[in-house]
Design brief:
This protein has about 550 residues and is of the alpha/beta class. Helices cover about 35% and strands about 15% of the residues. The protein folds into two domains: about 10-55 and about 115-160 and about 405-555, FAD/NAD(P)-binding domain, CATH 3.50.50.60; about 165-405, no CATH class. The chain has helices at about 10-15, 30-45, 60-65, 75-80, 85-90, 100-110, 210-220, 245-255, 255-265, 285-295, 300-305, 315-330, 335-340, 410, 425-430, 460-480, 490-505, 535-545; strands at about 20-30, 50, 120, 125-130, 135-140, 145-155, 175-180, 200-205, 225-230, 235, 355, 370, 380, 385-390, 390-395, 395-400, 415, 445-450, 455, 485, 530, 550-555.
Amino acid sequence: MSNAPAVSSTSTHRAASGAATQFDAVVIGAGVSGLYQIYRLREAGFSVLGIEAGSGVGGTWYWNRYPGARFDSESYTYAYSFSDELLQEWNWNEHFAPQPETLAYLNHVADKFNLRPLIRFNTRVTAATFDANAQCWDIVTEAGATIRTRFMIMATGLLSATQFPDIPGIDSFQGKSLHTSRWPHDPNGLGGDKSVYLGKRVGIIGTGATAVQLIPHLAAGAASLHVFQRTANWCAPLHNGPIKPEEQAALKASYPAIFQLCDKTGGAFMHDFDPRSVFDVSAEEREALFEKLYTHGRGFALWLANFHDVMTDMRANKLLSDFVARKIRARVKDPAVATKLVPTTHGFGQRRVPMETNYYEVYNQDNVTLIDIRENPIARITPTGIKTTAAEYDLDVIIFATGFDAGTGAISRIDIRGPDGSSIKDKWSRELKTFMGLQVSGFPNMFMHIGPHAAFCNLPRCAQITVDWVTELMGYMRERNLREVVPTPEAETAWTRHAEAEADKTLLSKTDSWIMGSNIPGKPRALLLYAAPAPVFRQECKALAENHYQGMQLR
Ligand code: NA7
């Protein structure tokens, strides 16, 4: 590793256009975690190159431009906390910022900290091989360039590898079809192009968190909307609203308190579980808390500020599920449609809860039809639309809101080979194993942010933990002239078993969802996130550094 001074924009530009170049670190992905990692490494005096497939920064917020895309985290808890000046100068307009506002924010961060010159855009990484003699990674891009780096840092995102369903005839459709995370850009702004659906006959496949944000917009603008639902999900009201000028000043004054609170809560949000059991209180008190959270609780409050046992005890969970089912039935006029919208396969919060604004009311509109494809599965996609086992629907547009190969997908779609030639894809196709979600045994000098086994929390908050940890480790190694770090297989196995035990304690692991990898055919079933509370994960990272990285081989 070189003791390189901070990389100047000129030298990076030269490097970015060259062939095989040596960097201390290459950060793959210029989203929330990648931008912060690039910033931290440059500040620490490392030479760093960012590689980004998109034409701009933003990651999730660059790609996901479908109408309705927005935070489910309060905007002020999602912001970077490392710069007080940044916190004070940026005005969030809504409690849950829409995608164009978030993308504007991340562009502002890139400009303010002059990160753009350190990033090579429009560049997709296809392969990476660790050279054991040189103790370096050789990273290969789609265009055929090779970039040599000591450390390879995967900031590729939890939900970025798009997943299309395996439906016969999918390529035969003659109209427009698209995945929600590849929504065409609005030529006049940072959002998505609404002309995709305005006045059109639209079909959407999927009813996860993405679809639940998008569907009210489609219903308002499309001539007709057919929603093809395989599994109903439990949704909760978002309760978004503008941040009023007087609130803005109060928020800016309370940033330290907001982040302190996020540091303490299990999910790194401003919500924490009620320490009481649902069975400790009377039926009236229980109903009162459910009602308060449903009617007024912002964001994930209904999920994460509820009685603690609703997420650990199926009997407690059933009480909450029944409450939410009553709400759905009250909001949807046609009882038969309401019944289809009430989930039957799992309890509230066992899957990532989609946050909604007027979602259920959409099904009261004349131009909206809910198609239950569990009852009548899609037989095929035809040149003119979608054919189920019961009927055929003519459409102008088909939208695939069918999700992602979460956690592992963005990493294993790159042909990553360790020093002995073994591939990470093969390894994870047998079993998901990581060391703290940070490293993988057999793949030295590779780090992951928000990848598999990432802490289950407000993502920027936990990304800051891991970015700071990686930066500190690289500094530690520089001081000691160490060139290689890799976890031992024993440490990786021990930590993976611990993560599995934590997963077992939650109800998340008791149903199918992308969180369990079960949306991808053949993917080994495992909780893709680390279920222990975020403060526990932070403490584990801290202890690892304090104990001189026990369980990791440094050489
Ligand atoms: P999700 O939550 O994985 O939802 C995908 C949806 O697509 C879900 O309703 C699936 O039904 C449906 N799906 C997937 N494949 C098929 C096929 N083959 N046929 C019919 N329906 C299908 O992805 P999202 O993009 O909504 O959200 C991902 C995360 O992004 C979200 O949790 C937030 O954290 C942000 P299924 O439930 O599998 O029956």
